[in-house]
Specification:
alpha+beta; Immunoglobulin-like; 3 domains; 2 helices; 16 strands; 16% helix
Length: 246
């Protein structure tokens, strides 16, 4: 029988997915509730489990490769994601500590991988693995996520996975630059913040030319965020944001 937290996890995941493209504010609201309940449920499972646990890290995946088909993602010979499409993000999955080969194949095939790479999974570490670029040149990027947040504070960082334009700034709307000159594939350090709702904008690097507003970004207490910038096309105005926690 499912417990209360497990049912909440499924409900909030459904609502976050439902509002993903139609209402970004509700998507982020339910995604935060989902993430909080995942954490509570995982804590309950740890308390219930009495047998010695295997040392493990945590992986999640993001598809940010423009005009690239759906893919299957393998860790060694184990498939972790099927028919993973552009803009999809997965939940964290616990993986035993050790060395792994990551292989990305066109969906429903396992002949020649689109690309592959290696990852050393450390105990209690969290990783985001992204495919980015375009259908002519697909890249694999791995970053480590910091889940530690000072009590009642918030933090965020920016990861630029759009090649158009080649470099960007992120600023307070009509205000000061927060992160400058972020090139393709670059991820900033986390910036600690007092919890707030703030209007941000993405600019062409070194200018005041706004490419994409990021209105009413809600930085909740005890949450960290990664704002991932991706684009639908080579037009810089197609750039938009995906919010990951943390």
């Amino acid at each position: 029988m499912k417990n209360h937290n497990q049912m909440n996890v499924e409900q909030y995941q459904y609502l976050a997915d439902f509002y993903k493209y139609t209402n970004p504010q509700k998507h982020l609201y339910y995604y935060q509730l989902y993430y909080s309940n995942v954490y509570e449920y995982s804590q309950q499972q740890r308390e219930i489990e009495t047998a010695p646990q295997e040392l493990s890290g945590n992986l999640r995946f993001l598809h940010a490769a423009l005009n690239t088909q759906e893919v299957d993602i393998y860790l060694n010979d184990t498939i972790l994601e099927r028919s993973f499409r552009f803009s999809n993000k997965s939940d964290y999955e616990a993986i035993p500590e050790g060395s792994y080969q990551i292989s990305i194949f066109p969906a429903n095939t396992k002949n020649t991988p689109l690309l592959s790479g290696y990852l050393q999974v450390e105990n209690d570490a969290y990783y985001t693995i992204a495919i980015a670029g375009n259908n002519e040149n697909v890249d694999l990027f791995i970053i480590e996520d910091d889940v530690e947040i000072p009590q009642n504070e918030s933090k965020f960082r920016v990861w630029n996975l759009s090649q158009y334009p080649p470099s960007i700034d992120v600023a307070v709307k009509k205000g000061d630059v927060v992160f400058s000159d972020i090139g393709y594939s670059e991820v900033t350090e986390y910036l600690a913040m007092t919890p707030m709702t703030v209007d941000l904008e993405v600019r062409q690097s070194g200018t005041t030319n706004s490419i994409r507003p990021l209105n009413r970004v809600s930085l909740k207490p005890n949450f960290g965020y990664t704002i991932v910038l991706i684009s639908h096309s080579a037009d810089p105005n197609s750039l938009y944001a995906i919010f990951l926690v943390p």
